């Protein structure tokens, strides 16, 4: 069963849920690149669907639910931090027996957890990909309208599901893109606006139930509880990774991909400039992309992730140095 129990020095143990891909494979996956996917605030593992569909073709992929989200538990007794959430990820890696050659990919809050995870276990890391995230809230805050929409999307300002959905769309995607059209496989090939396509895609992903849980009669996990959302938000607001803390990863020569969208109003692109400086690498910016770039520009994102994983595999076989 893909749950791992995590114990705290104070408080009751809790479980972290994870899912691996490809599912029900008869292939020996031990020689494939090992990838762990870390989702953002309030999101579940199913939101990585565009990346899982691509990466599972050549990687052994693990997508986990952060504490308080999806099927994972809600630990009590400690304030939630990105560092402690990274320890949840370490527990998952240990449970899988992944001790080396690990490719870490995180978006938004998941990118913050990814930073802490890579810093915590640098010798186990083959590559890192940091998408639409920041190293500290001190450097670049969201736009005012994004903050308002964030509060709406989380249910703090409204409980109207339709308004919450609209706010989430505005947070993640530029208006111009939402108004564009496409032939949607979710609407029997009909031409629909991107907003309608994404609405249905999000609904379907929220209703996704892993096969082994469905067999037990479990249903969709439901929305994240407002208290858990607040605890995750406080972890985001207190996240801080300095350039000095990234020194060992730089010395090891771990490949780091820093990726942002030029129109991200929630985690503005300047944050990626700061992170890139921390790791002494460059920023990849997707033109006209918003915070939800993993959907809006899925093909471009997948291509960059694949390239970084390939660089990480080369690094893992021939590391620049061993500390």
Automatic annotation (TrEMBL):
<dbReference type="InterPro" id="IPR000073">
    <property type="entry name" value="AB_hydrolase_1"/>
</dbReference>
<dbReference type="InterPro" id="IPR050471">
    <property type="entry name" value="AB_hydrolase"/>
</dbReference>
<feature type="domain" description="AB hydrolase-1">
    <location>
        <begin position="33"/>
        <end position="297"/>
    </location>
</feature>
<dbReference type="Pfam" id="PF00561">
    <property type="entry name" value="Abhydrolase_1"/>
</dbReference>
<protein>
    <submittedName>
        <fullName>RutD protein</fullName>
    </submittedName>
</protein>
<dbReference type="InterPro" id="IPR029058">
    <property type="entry name" value="AB_hydrolase_fold"/>
</dbReference>
């Amino acid at each position: 069963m893909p749950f791992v129990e995590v114990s705290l020095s104070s408080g009751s143990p809790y479980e972290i849920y994870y899912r691996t891909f490809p599912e029900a494979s008869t292939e020996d996956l031990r020689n494939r690149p090992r990838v762990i996917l870390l989702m953002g605030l309030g999101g579940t593992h199913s939101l990585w669907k565009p990346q899982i569909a691509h990466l599972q073709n050549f990687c052994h992929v693990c997508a986990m639910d952060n504490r308080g989200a999806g099927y994972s538990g809600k630990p009590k007794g400690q304030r939630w931090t990105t560092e402690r959430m990274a320890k949840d990820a370490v527990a998952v890696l240990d449970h899988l027996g992944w001790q080396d050659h690990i490719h870490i990919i995180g978006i938004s809050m998941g990118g913050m957890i990814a930073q802490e995870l890579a810093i915590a276990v640098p010798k186990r890391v083959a590559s890192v990909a940091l998408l639409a995230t920041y190293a500290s809230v001190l450097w670049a805050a969201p736009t005012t309208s994004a903050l308002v929409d964030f509060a709406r999307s989380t249910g703090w300002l409204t409980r109207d599901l339709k308004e919450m959905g609209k706010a989430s769309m505005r947070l993640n995607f530029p208006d111009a893109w939402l108004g564009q059209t496409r032939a949607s496989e979710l609407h029997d090939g009909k031409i629909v606006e991107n907003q309608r396509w994404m609405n249905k895609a999000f609904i379907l992903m929220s209703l996704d139930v892993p096969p082994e849980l469905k067999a037990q009669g479990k249903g969709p996990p439901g929305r994240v509880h407002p208290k858990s959302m607040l605890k995750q938000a406080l972890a985001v607001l207190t996240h801080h990774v300095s350039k000095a803390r990234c020194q060992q990863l730089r010395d090891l020569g771990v490949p780091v991909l820093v990726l942002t969208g030029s129109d991200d109003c929630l985690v503005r692109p300047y944050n990626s400039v700061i992170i890139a400086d921390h790791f002494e690498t460059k920023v990849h910016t997707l033109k006209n992309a918003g915070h939800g770039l993993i959907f809006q520009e899925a093909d471009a994102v997948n291509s960059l992730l694949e390239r970084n994983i390939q660089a990480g595999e080369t690094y893992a076989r021939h590391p620049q140095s061993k500390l």
